[in-house]
């Protein structure tokens, strides 16, 4: 018995020693590579989790209905691919640069995700800010990074309770936004999901989503996920093994992404979102199609199918579509249009697409 125990203990110590040797070798190799390519990355020698940790900017606050909205304040946001940019939030919407309190005329509401909010550019360089200058009338930038398509419509519904808008522009990032509407949390940001019920599809409340998130992350191996981040070898193991040990669509990289188990199928979800958008009180409604950088070269088959579905849903409800892809692809210098999101030049290109499309639509309707 003692011999077996001693053998087991020796084998365990050898295994621990081997793992520590692999961990040390990995850190040495990665640190050396960073020194040869750029400045030495000393984070490889820091103690603590190797998973990503959210930057506590305070630019987002919790909302009991929508999940999250911009938090009032003046910020200098350090985007990953560029210099820090000024972001000014008032009344939970982003300003368009210097305020013009005397602006009159049609009031436009813009809703969508980070491409509407204007990640990576200053207040005056977003496409809503450009529209405000072009039309010399107020444009409200109610975009929010991380939003799903149906979540953006819910934001418009909430804003219409407190004010009247003549025009609503609903921006959809093709291939991304509808997927987010199946989640109760994305990057640990709790959000309403669109679920199937016997009475038809509906939004969950944020409280409901929080309960689903808690239940999913406090059982089985999920509740120990954070412990895998303290060594690089265990983090790498988690990245490969978690795909098979967690339910489909559930991910942890320091922050949780969790789908709702009753999430509406994509066709049902999209039809629900379009019904909600069509029910808004604004006289003019537009769907703005926006695209990630890779779409300038190739549209994936799944994204092409989504585009066809969007066009059918919009046509059935007599909603105009503004497709930015043709003008982005025909730009003389495509590289100037994107970082991860649109550059100032990219936002101006989107802005021109909207101005042209809205002008044409108004002429056709005799407005």
Reported by name, the CATH topology of the largest domain is Rossmann fold
Question: End-to-end span in angstroms?
Answer: 92 Å
Strand content: 15-25%
- Overall, the morphology is globular
Overall average pLDDT? 91
SSE string: HEEEEEEHHEHEHEEEEHHEEHEHEHH
What's a concise summary of this model?
The chain has 367 residues and is of the alpha/beta class.
Topology readout:
Blueprint (H helix, E strand, L loop, with lengths): L1 H36 L22 E4 L3 E4 L2 E5 L7 E6 L2 E2 L13 E4 L2 H4 L9 H9 L3 E3 L7 H14 L4 E7 L3 H4 L2 E4 L2 E2 L3 E2 L6 E2 L2 H12 L14 H14 L5 E2 L3 E4 L6 H13 L5 E7 L10 H16 L3 E4 L1 H5 L14 H21 L3
Parallel strand pairs: 6-7, 6-8, 8-15, 15-16
Antiparallel strand pairs: 1-2, 3-4, 4-5, 9-10, 9-14, 11-12, 13-14
Helix pairs in contact: 3-11, 4-8, 8-9
Walk me through this protein's architecture:
The protein is an alpha/beta fold and 367 residues long. It folds into two domains: 2-45, no CATH class; 60-183 and 264-364, SGNH hydrolase (Rossmann fold), CATH 3.40.50. It is 40% helix and 17% strand. The chain has helices at residues 2-37, 114-117, 127-135, 149-162, 177-180, 206-217, 232-245, 266-278, 301-316, 325-329, 344-364, and strands at 60-63, 67-70, 73-77, 85-90, 93-94, 108-111, 139-141, 167-173, 183-186, 189-190, 194-195, 202-203, 251-252, 256-259, 284-290, 320-323. The strands form five sheets. A five-stranded parallel β-sheet has the order 7-6-8-15-16, sandwiched between helices. The longest helix has 36 residues, at 2-37. It starts with a helix and ends with a helix. The mean pLDDT is 91.
């Amino acid at each position: 018995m003692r011999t077996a125990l001693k053998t087991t203990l020796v084998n365990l110590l050898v295994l621990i020693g081997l793992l520590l040797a692999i961990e040390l070798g990995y850190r040495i190799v990665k640190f050396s590579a960073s020194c040869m390519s750029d400045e030495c990355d000393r984070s490889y020698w820091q103690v603590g989790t190797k998973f990503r940790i959210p930057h506590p900017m305070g630019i987002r606050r919790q909302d009991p209905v929508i999940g999250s909205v911009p938090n009032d304040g003046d910020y200098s946001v350090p985007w990953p691919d560029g210099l820090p940019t000024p972001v000014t939030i008032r009344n939970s919407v982003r300003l368009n640069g210097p305020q013009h309190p005397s602006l009159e005329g049609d009031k436009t509401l813009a809703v969508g995700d980070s491409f509407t909010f204007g990640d990576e550019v200053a207040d005056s360089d977003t496409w809503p800010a450009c529209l405000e200058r072009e039309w010399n009338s107020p444009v409200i930038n109610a975009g929010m990074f991380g939003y799903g398509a149906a979540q953006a419509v819910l934001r418009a519904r909430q804003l219409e309770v407190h004010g009247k808008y003549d025009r609503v522009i609903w921006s959809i990032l093709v291939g991304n936004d509808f997927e987010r509407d199946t989640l109760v949390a994305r990057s640990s940001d709790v959000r309403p999901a669109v679920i199937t019920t016997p009475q038809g599809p509906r939004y969950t409340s944020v409280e409901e989503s929080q309960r689903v998130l808690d239940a999913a992350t406090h059982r089985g191996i999920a509740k120990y996920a954070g412990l895998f981040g303290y060594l690089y070898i265990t983090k790498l193991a988690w990245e490969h093994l978690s795909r098979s040990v967690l339910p489909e669509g559930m991910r942890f990289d320091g922050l949780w992404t969790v789908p709702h188990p009753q999430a509406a199928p994509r066709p049902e979800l999209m039809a629900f979102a379009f019904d909600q958008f069509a029910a808004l009180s604004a006289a003019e409604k537009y769907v703005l199609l926006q695209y990630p950088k890779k779409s300038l070269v190739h549209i994936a088959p799944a994204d092409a199918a989504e585009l066809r579905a969007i066009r059918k849903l919009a046509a059935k409800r007599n909603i105009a579509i503004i497709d930015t892809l043709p003008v982005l692809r025909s730009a003389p210098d495509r590289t100037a249009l994107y970082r991860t999101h649109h550059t100032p030049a990219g936002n101006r290109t989107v802005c021109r697409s909207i101005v042209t499309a809205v002008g044409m639509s108004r002429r056709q309707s005799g407005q």
